[in-house]
Amino acid sequence: MASFAIENVESGQAISSITGTGKCESYFIFSFETSLGDALRIFLYFMGLAYCFIGLSAITARFFRSMENVVKHSRKVVEIDPHTNTEIIRYEKVWNFTIADISLLAFGTSFPQISLATIDAIRNIGNLYAGGLGPGTLVGSAAFDLFPIHAVCVVVPKAGELKKISDIGVWLVELVWSFWAYIWLYIILEVWTPKVITLWEALLTVLQYALLLTHAYAQDKRWPYFSLPLARTERPEEWVPPENAICKQDNPCREEFQAHENEQRSIVDIFSIHDTDGKVPGHDVAESSNSNIPEEMDGKADHPHVLKIWKQQFVDALSLETSESKKQNNIYLRSARLCWQLIRAPWRLLFAFVPPYNIAHGWLAFICSLIFISGIAYILTKFTDLISCVSGINPYVIAFTALASGTSWPDLVASKIAAERQTTADSAIANITCSNSVNIYVGIGVPWLISTTYNFIAYREPLKIKDAGGLSFSLLVFFSTSVACIIVLVFRRLTLGAELGGPRVWAWITCIFFMLLWLIFVVLSSLKVSDII
User: Fold this and answer.
1) C-alpha to C-alpha distance for 42 and 33, rounded to whole angstroms
2) Does 180 fall in a domain?
3) Residue 125 located in a structural domain
């Protein structure tokens, strides 16, 4: 990784290159990169950016699987029947579903942006001015979450199928905190302490995430005085409808090997964490690592079994074809799939080092996945710096367009899966609203807390925001367009009876409207930070 950190120019020179006033002398690995033409360099760096997004998608799939094992963990509860004086053994989930949605699910889908912003802050440590990639990416990611992902989720259900939010109270709590996050960000940027962030403002930003968790849990449990008097309606016992699992009890190890092939054709249904019996529906059961292993054995798996699974991960990573793809009669589709697997092979081999998911209830794989995601996020920041340096494009523009879209891919996949498979719209929409809250309270709050703490100790100075005006303008545009988005969702609820699905024509009209809102945000924000308007 040391070679990725090579820099040949001081910050002042880099800034001049970003504005296009001189030749960019920075390079990624090899010094001869500077002798290439600018157009070729931009193309190569964009290809590198795209390849990192492919890797990010691959490791995020593993991250979801490990998160699934963490959340579905149950604990044994022994009670004494007062009438018969006999022991009653039951298993209850360790994680509350609402808290899991807001913490692990939203945090997991937002972790690429969070790690990128944190790395950007650490790179700029000691600088009185905050880095621009983090805030720009997170605000752009919020817009991508709210508009394109909603647009996809609306049209995903089958024609005529309606999916509505069953727990409207929890959604309203999440929505209010999401809107407040961006109002709060505007207040501290433009009203309270204009264009600077103090240590206390950064600390308050992070603490509000804890308040969100507490308020959402209170609403879920219907605490008096702390929750809205709204009852749940039609909330199914199992949020994900059961399917025929491919796993069989006779040979769990063999079935786990078989399921590794399924990783090549779909991403695990992470929303099986809402399945109350602790079993994972769908064809990804085995790869979730221990669907056939009793809950009490999870985390205590025998070493030979674990080593076999781990070995099989490397075998699967080097396999370009599955048994299913070999049956493909269309030579063109089969060739395209082979090319795709060949492109992904280096990432798959690297991520095979992530431990199997049935170790320590998935926590070890969870942590290792976070480490890999952080590494990719660091490389993304280098590519973004180089593209900005060579092309002269404002880094904010790259941040809330290319970076925001690429790092928000896990959010899109997660919400799409929920809209397809769940009987309600709760998790599909909750993932969007909660991810937006996490983006501000954690994704911007933590990096700013790191920078303000250092500046306070070293200089007794606050953190200055270089392009606070552009960021504030983006927040205003986002807030205005997001109000329009929520109004449409409420209108659909009142007229069609559900937020997602419905008649095909109206679903596509809603989809197009949401995409137009996103284009408005991107165009206006880009023009503002480029000083065109």
Assistant:
1) 11
2) yes
3) yes
**In this predicted model, what pLDDT tens digit does every residue of 108-126 receive, in sequence order?**
778 888 888 888 888 888 8
Measured CA to CA, the distance from residue 466 to residue 470 in angstroms comes to 9
pLDDT tens sequence across 257-270: 444 444 433 333 33
Give the count of domains, the chain: 1
Q: Which of 47, 159, 63, 17 is nearest to 402 (CA)?
A: 47
Q: How far apart are CA 231 and CA 166, in angstroms?
A: 9
Instruction: Name 390's Cβ contacts closer than 8 Å, sequence gap at least 6.
Output: 17, 24, 38, 41, 42, 45
Classify residue 327 by burial, with Cβ atoms within 10 Å: 0-12, 13-18, 19+: exposed
pTM of the model: 0.72
Give the Cα separation of 446 and 436 in Å (integer).
15
Domain contains 19 = no
DSSP states of 375-402 as a string?
A: HHHHHHHHHHHHHHHHH---HHHHIIII
Q: Which secondary structure element, helix H or strand E, spans residue 163, and what is its range?
A: strand 162-163
CATH number at 405 reads 1.20.1420.30
Mean pLDDT score, 188-210: 91
Tokens of 118: 């944190």
pLDDT of residue 3: 38
Residue 239 lies in a domain: no
Tell me the per-residue pLDDT of 369-411, one tens digit each, with 9 for 90 and over: 888 888 888 888 888 888 888 888 877 788 878 888 887 877 7
Report DSSP letters for 170-227, one per residue: HHHHHHHHHHHHHHHHHIIIIIISTTEE-HHHHHHHHHHHHHHHHHHHHHHHT-TTTS
Strand partners, 80: 87
DSSP letter, residue 246:
S
Give the separation between CA 415 and CA 427, rounded to whole angstroms.
Answer: 7
Strands 196-197 and 463-464: antiparallel
Count the neighbouring beta carbons within 10 Å of the beta carbon of residue 302.
10
Instruction: Output the pLDDT for position 249.
Output: 39
Q: Which residue is it, tokens 């997602």?
A: 500
In angstroms, the CA 170 to CA 216 distance is 6
Closest by alpha carbon to 97, among 245, 235, 298, 263? 235
HEC sequence for 42-102:
HHHHHHHHHHHHHHHHHHHHHHHHHHHHHHCCEEEEEEECCCCCCEEEEEEECCCHHHHHH
Domain hosting 189: range is 95-228+370-528
